[in-house]
Structure formats: structure tokens, C-alpha cells
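Dear H.,

Thanks for agreeing to be a second pair of eyes. The structure we're designing against is below in C-alpha cell form, covering all 151 positions.
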């Protein structure tokens, strides 16, 4: 019987998206205002400061290969994951959605009142990765750009 290992400190540090055209995806996320870091990687991989976990972009086929998963068929339906851009107000939600659309995003769902007392809408990036833009009770966005959750 083996000895139980101590639990490591849990961390979500990077969310990496597989993209078709890394140059176009870099331009899209740069245009949204995320700050690119480690530019020394060129167009092999891109990292953006989001105020929380790092957003990584990596060519779709190479990311699949790195994870030892098949590259094909690529999903054209919901992938079971959404990203979120939490806001401080309903007006900010509307502003972020309009801004993302202006930069090349596709509107998936217009902003609306939610059944939990919030306000949200969805856009997709050029590769179809869905982003929820929301303001919600118990979820505060601090001056540090981080989300703070009520107890």
C-alpha cells in the first residue's frame, strides 16, 4: 500500500486556445486590449495578460498533437467550455459586447437579464471560442482586474 501524497496547491494558470490562424488570433486579442507578453515566442505561441490566468494561443493542430489528441474532426458545435469577461455594470457588458463585435467577434447571444439576477451576452472569437460577458450578483471585478467572489 502506497503512502498518500500531500495535496499540491491548486492553480489555474494558463488557458490555451487552439487557433487556425495564429497571426489573425494574435491581432484579434491584441485589439481587444489584452497585453501580449513573451513576444520572443514570435508566432509559435502567444501569451496574453488577462489580469487572472494567462490566455495562450497555439496553432490548433500543434496543440492537439502536444496533448496527444486527434486534430480531426474539428468541432463545429459547442465544445463544453466558455470563457468569461466579467464586468462591473450592465452598461459595461453592453460596451464590451459592442467593442468585441467591432474587433471581429461574432454575436452569439445579445445581452439580456438572467434568471439569477445578472445581465449577460455571448460573443465568439474568430475560431468560435465562446466568451460570456456578464455582470452577476456576488461576483465583483476589482481594480486589480481580478474577479472576487462572495463567500
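And this is the sequence the design step returned. I haven't edited it by hand at all.
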Amino acid at each position: 500500500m502506497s503512502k498518500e501524497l500531500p495535496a499540491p496547491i491548486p492553480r489555474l494558470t494558463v488557458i490555451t486556445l487552439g487557433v487556425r490562424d495564429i497571426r489573425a488570433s494574435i491581432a484579434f486579442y491584441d485589439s481587444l486590449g489584452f497585453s501580449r507578453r513573451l513576444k520572443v515566442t514570435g508566432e509559435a505561441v502567444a501569451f496574453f495578460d488577462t489580469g487572472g490566468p494567462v490566455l495562450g494561443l497555439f496553432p490548433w493542430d500543434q496543440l492537439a498533437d502536444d496533448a496527444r489528441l486527434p486534430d480531426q474532426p474539428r468541432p463545429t458545435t459547442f465544445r463544453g467550455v466558455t470563457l468569461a469577461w466579467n464586468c462591473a455594470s450592465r452598461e459595461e457588458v453592453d460596451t464590451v459586447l459592442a467593442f468585441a463585435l467591432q474587433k471581429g467577434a461574432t454575436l452569439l447571444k445579445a445581452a439580456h437579464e438572467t434568471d439569477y439576477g445578472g445581465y449577460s451576452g455571448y460573443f465568439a472569437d474568430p475560431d468560435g471560442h465562446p466568451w460570456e460577458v456578464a455582470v452577476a450578483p456576488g461576483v465583483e471585478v476589482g481594480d486589480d482586474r481580478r474577479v472576487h467572489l462572495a463567500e
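Two observations from my side: The radius of gyration is 17 Å. The chain is about 20% helix and 30% strand.

Warmly,
E.
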